[in-house]
Amino acid sequence: METPEIDNLVKKFLQFKLTIAFAESCTAGLLASEFSKGVGSSEVLLGSVVTYHPIAKQKLLGVSQESLSLYTAESQQVTNEMVMGLHKKLPADVCVAVTGLCAEGASEADIKPVGTVFFTFLHQNHAEEIRHEFEGDCVTVREQAADFIFTHLGELLNRYSEQYAAQAVETRTKKG
């Protein structure tokens, strides 16, 4: 995502007075690095926790050994635990967790090929799970995952805007 698009995303967060935090595995800090390029990002970005290794997922975000053993570090279940652990440590209005397979050597299988990435977006006590398969080398998969997240955040904030506008109209109607 280009810097002007990041600027627009940050402006939406500022407009609604929302904060964000990231729990990054396969993106390895790319989300925070790119998001922080946006003008005003210091007002909305609480932080990012890079938990590339399963030990970091456990120690920093409270991911259970049982989930790691049963589902693998690159799974929706682990991503869900990552976002919940993140929210406990950095209680942002929007929390995003991401993990996946950027290269061979992890938990890839026919049903989970290299390029499979898992996302969990937590906002207003609602968790949205997404699984997406990208193609390309490791760097390309990371970049595509970051772009996917930023695009999805824009969509989330558009929905938030519609909800916010509907609530404002409802409030005015009740007062009138």
UniProtKB/TrEMBL annotation:
Gene3D superfamilies assigned to the protein according to its UniProt record, in alphabetical order: CinA-like
Signal peptide stretch: none
Domain spans labelled CinA C-terminal: 8-156
Domain of life: Bacteria
NCBIfam families per the UniProt record, alphabetical: PncC_domain
Protein name listed in UniProt: CinA C-terminal domain-containing protein
Organism name: Hymenobacter cavernae
